[in-house]
Automatic annotation (TrEMBL):
PANTHER family: C2 DOMAIN-CONTAINING PROTEIN
Keywords from the named record: Calcium, Metal-binding
GO function terms (MF aspect): metal ion binding
Name of the protein: Synaptotagmin
InterPro entries: C2_dom, C2_domain_sf
SMART domains with a match to the protein in the record: C2
Domain C2 span(s) in chain numbering: 1-101, 119-235
CDD domains on file: C2
Species of the source: Carpediemonas membranifera
Gene3D superfamilies the record matches: C2 domain
Length: 328
């Protein structure tokens, strides 16, 4: 009998409750197919917006899968921060098609979990990293300013600059603003990206005699933005001891919406009804995603996803699913 696998990437969580005295948490995520052994991510200390980006291969069973997030405690039982449970059967119709979505967490206080999943005949986790073969295009990103940054130096200030990277490779760096917790840059860059590229904006504190401190970061993909429109948003900084916000403008060209072939299907990004990014993480960020005529025709995918995610308890009918589907 041929084995089947459920490939799961636990990417990140946002807006988790804080349970520790420092108004933060030390979250990790446990995942389990009902009736099977559980697996877990690493613990990320002192954050309510953890970034794991960890992948798992699990023997597939057409059963519910449970994701439960906990706050790690050294001297007492770990506190639950939120959970979500849903069936995995809808993935069978999209073999080796990674489906990425934000899942609303239930109990105790909400929050969101960002996942990518697919059904496969092998345990090759690289399937989860499959990119579209759409030709790279130019996206303009402007790092406008930051506010309320953490003071990293003894004088109660920081010397911040922004580092912009694409998929961990291509890099752009702003000027350093000395002795400033609310710097202004207004620096624009043309980046070579694909719809699923991960654009990361990291705020660092310049140090002459030691490694530069990371004050916080945010990340997004071009597929979360509307074509031929400038997304103008403030992003809450994530990471260890992060505080403050960064103001970003990003523009995706109109031609992008038509450059992906209609068949065959290779990957899908599915957004929950609240939008592509959880509320409270970004402000004034367009939530329509890539909502084109071609995507509206993906009724089969939308119906399968809506049915599979019905366990979220958010009334997700097929007409409410926003799907991003791209070719090999």
């Amino acid at each position: 009998m041929v084995s089947a696998f459920l490939l799961v990437k636990v990417i990140q969580a946002r807006n988790l409750p804080s349970t520790d005295s420092n108004n933060s948490s030390d979250p990790y995520c446990k995942l389990k197919i009902v009736g099977k052994d559980s697996q877990r991510t690493q613990t990320i200390e002192r954050t309510v917006d953890p970034y794991w980006n960890e992948s798992f291969a699990m023997k597939y069973k057409a059963r519910d899968i449970v994701f439960a997030i906990f706050d790690a405690d050294r001297f007492s039982a770990d506190d639950p921060l939120g959970r979500v449970q849903f069936t995995t059967k809808f993935l069978e119709d999209m073999k080796e098609v990674p489906v990425s979505f934000w899942a609303p967490l239930t109990s105790p206080d909400g929050g969101f979990l960002h996942l990518s999943m697919c059904y496969s005949d092998s345990n090759d986790l690289s399937v989860l990293n499959r990119k579209s073969s759409v030709s790279p295009f130019k996206m303009e990103v402007e790092v406008v300013e930051a506010s309320d940054l953490r003071a990293s130096d003894l004088n109660g200030q920081s010397d911040p600059y922004a580092l912009v990277t694409v998929d961990g490779g291509q890099k752009k760096k702003t000027k350093i603003r000395m002795h400033n917790l609310s710097p202004t840059w207004n620096e624009k860059y043309k980046l070579d990206v694909t719809p699923e590229s991960i654009v990361r904006v990291e705020i660092r504190d310049f140090d002459r005699v030691s490694d530069d401190d990371v004050l916080g970061f945010t990340s997004f993909t071009p597929s979360e933005l509307s074509p031929n429109c400038t997304a103008n948003f403030w992003a809450k900084l994530q990471g260890h001891d992060a505080r403050g916000f960064v103001h970003i403008k990003a523009t995706v060209p109109e031609s992008v919406q038509s450059c992906a072939p209609s068949t065959p299907v290779a990957s899908a990004t599915v957004f929950c009804p609240c939008g592509s990014i959880p509320a409270g993480t970004y402000s004034t960020l367009p939530t329509d995603g890539f909502h084109t005529d071609r995507e509206m025709k993906m009724a089969a995918v939308k119906g399968a996803v809506a049915g599979g995610l019905a366990g979220f308890g958010v009334g997700m009918a097929a007409e409410h699913v926003r799907a991003k589907v791209m070719g090999h």
